[in-house]
Design goal:
Its cofactor is thiamine diphosphate. The protein is of the alpha/beta class. The chain contains 23 helices and 19 strands. Bound molecules: adenosine-5'-diphosphate, ligand TPW and magnesium ion. Ligand TPW binds next to helix 17 and helix 19.
Length: 574
């Protein structure tokens, strides 16, 4: 019999957070346990969430960011307060910088104690610290506001220009009770979290007219174009227009790198020569020399070239951030490119053949030269002979994810290893940050179930190397190839005083493969391309966690890879 005095069925903060995430089709949490989130993670797992537990919060955060990029849904990372939160911040800031949607959720101390600075366990004003590093930051104090807090965080992460969002959940919130029915009603299923943004027809027309007038047009596809998941529209546009294109590194594979319109092998020629450049989800930041200088065929390093730019982007404030944009087109890439495809009409004439012919000629020359270099088999394995093997493995396994970080290990891989499918290349991104490797690898494997190949500089690998335990614990199909050249950039530096190793040197011939064996994975040392191929083939066939310690000529690299000119000493010499 029901009476007024009978207690109503209760829920609590733990369950409301889980239910709110589930309601929004979020089924995976990347995390590192501890007070106040240990029980939350246990209950999440019991409630059917996939909980991936890491050894350091930065990698859990990076995993969430990569999951966001791959799926277009916000990746979720949970950390403990103060130190755990701080460890996650690099990933939050990096996600924001790269326009990857992710939500960093951290437990925090009681507001009263933090605000009066009374000294709580792991006390810190986390919300204030997170704010400048993310797109939006929210705190939930009461169980009945959890639904709103999570809805706000999801919308902020994925709408408009995606980015990192911080959500602060004080410890007390998790245990707060609430009537179950009222709790259920308080949750929000976010409708259309990343709404289409249709470009203005006159903006599209202005851009199409400019493109039509071009003698030497060029399209640059950035990671925003990859993220937008408008693969068919983009391919249609490129092929219909006949315009040569350059993919930025994480846009590789949006169209297969061996596409005949790819101008990658004639990059410096097309950037300096093009007269109209259409940027699609790519910023004119340092990776494109800010649209200025020799790269763009300009006289001085600070002056702009003669190109006119079209910029397709979801952010209305992106245009003119470095050089004038003649035709900004603001909207989501899917809607924008589909509008281009329509506005171009049926009678579109392809670019002049002296332009496409000149590009083809340079491409042929450079590709022939590259093929000769790759075919060499020097007595000591170098980046080229090792990457030739990886290049073939990726070609045979086009669905595999390629994670890549380092300096030379990054630059050579980007130019040598072709990609064939969209969003398969995950790398150091806008900041050129080291440490994304294992977090990104875990995310790709967990979210997609596909094989992951992580090509890592030996220094780069060190930033997240302990996560090999995570990879073994979840038995993920991740094959790490450490390009071991005994150091940062190369292993041949000498300390002029001779009393200690130089700052860029590591222990010679280190056995990174044994790190993998320590946790039950497969570890192999490869001293030549044959050994590397055998180990890679076995890793891909078995899907076992594998680390291949690829011994690379320690003198093969160059200082800072391809960005030597950014070193202050090099700038001083200019
Ligand atoms: P890359 O490093 O590959 O050049 P960037 O990270 O510099 O790429 O640029 C990505 C751009 O894509 C950002 O300016 C961002 O606003 C934009 N962007 C992201 N998602 C979308 C989308 N769905 N539609 C339109 N633009 C987008
Ligand atoms: C978070 C500076 C850029 S590249 C690099 C460092 C330390 C490592 C290069 O050595 P590696 O590659 O990985 O062995 P290789 O093939 O050239 O020998 N800290 C952070 N991010 C960056 N970018 C650095 C330091 C850096
Ligand atoms: Mg190295």
């Amino acid at each position: 019999m029901t009476t007024d005095t009978q207690a109503s069925e209760q829920t609590d903060g733990f369950h409301l957070v889980i239910d709110a995430l589930k309601l929004n089709d979020i089924d995976t949490i990347f995390a590192l346990p501890g007070i106040p989130i240990t029980d939350f993670l246990r209950i999440s797992q019991a409630e059917g969430m996939k909980v991936i537990s890491f050894r350091h919060e930065q990698h859990a955060g990076n995993a969430a960011a990569a999951a966001g990029f791959i799926t277009g849904k916000p990746g979720i990372c949970f950390t403990v307060s103060a130190p755990g939160f701080l460890n996650g911040l690099t990933a939050l800031a990096n996600a924001t910088t790269n326009c990857f949607p992710m939500i960093l959720v951290s437990g925090s101390s009681e507001r009263e104690i933090v605000d009066l600075q009374q000294g709580d366990y792991e006390e810190m004003d986390q919300l204030a610290i997170a704010k400048p590093l993310c797109k939006a930051a929210f705190r939930v104090l009461h169980a009945e506001d959890i639904g709103v807090g999570i809805a706000r965080a999801i919308r902020a992460a994925v709408s408009g220009r995606p980015g990192g969002v911080y959500l602060d959940l004080p410890a007390k919130l998790f245990a707060q009770g609430m009537d179950k029915e009222a709790g259920k009603r308080s949750l929000i299923k976010v409708v259309d979290p990343a709404p289409k943004q249709i470009p203005a027809p006159d903006a599209v027309q202005r851009a199409v007219d400019l493109l039509k007038s071009a003698k030497k047009p060029l399209v640059i596809l950035g990671k925003g174009a990859a993220y937008a998941q408008a693969d068919a529209e983009i391919r249609n546009f490129i092929e219909k227009s006949g315009i040569p294109y350059l993919p930025m590194s994480m846009a590789k594979g949006l169209l297969p790198d061996n596409h005949n319109q790819s101008a990658s092998a004639a990059r410096s020629y097309v950037l300096a020569e093009a007269d109209v450049v259409m940027l699609v989800g790519a910023r004119l930041n340092w990776l494109l020399s800010h649209g200025k200088g020799k790269t763009w065929g300009a006289e001085g390093s600070k002056s702009a070239g003669k190109q006119q730019f079209i910029q397709v982007d979801i952010s209305p404030t992106e245009a003119d951030s470095n050089v004038a944009i003649a035709a900004p087109v603001i909207g989501d890439i899917g809607s924008c490119i589909s509008a281009f495809n329509q506005a171009m009409g049926a009678g579109w004439s392809k670019p002049p053949s002296d332009w496409t012919g000149a590009i083809a000629e340079r491409k042929d020359k450079n590709l022939t030269k590259m093929a000769e270099t790759l075919a060499k088999n020097p007595p000591v394995m170098n980046f080229h002979s090792a990457l030739n093997v990886i290049r073939n493995t990726v070609k045979e396994n086009p669905k595999a994810y390629l994670v890549n970080e380092g300096a030379n290990a990054l630059d050579f891989t980007r130019s040598i290893v072709d990609m064939y499918e969209p969003r398969r290349r995950l790398d150091v991104g806008t900041w050129g940050i080291m440490g994304i490797g294992m977090g990104f690898a875990v995310a790709a494997a967990v979210v997609t179930g596909e094989q992951v190949i992580a090509v890592e500089g030996d220094s780069a690998f060190g930033f997240s190397g302990m996560e090999v335990e995570t990879i073994c614990r979840y038995n993920l199909p991740v094959c790490i190839v450490v390009m071991n050249n005994n150091g940062i950039y190369k292993g041949t530096d000498v300390n002029p005083r001779g009393d200690a190793m130089a700052p860029t040197q590591f222990v010679k011939n280190a056995r990174y493969d044994l790190m993998m064996e320590a946790f039950g994975g497969v570890g192999v040392t490869a001293k030549n391309p044959e050994e590397l191929k055998k180990a890679l083939d076995e890793a891909v066939a078995s899907r076992k966690p594998t680390l291949i310690n690829a011994m690379i000529d320690e003198s093969a690299g160059t200082e800072s890879g391809r960005i030597t000119s950014l070193n202050p000493a090099a700038a001083k010499k200019k």
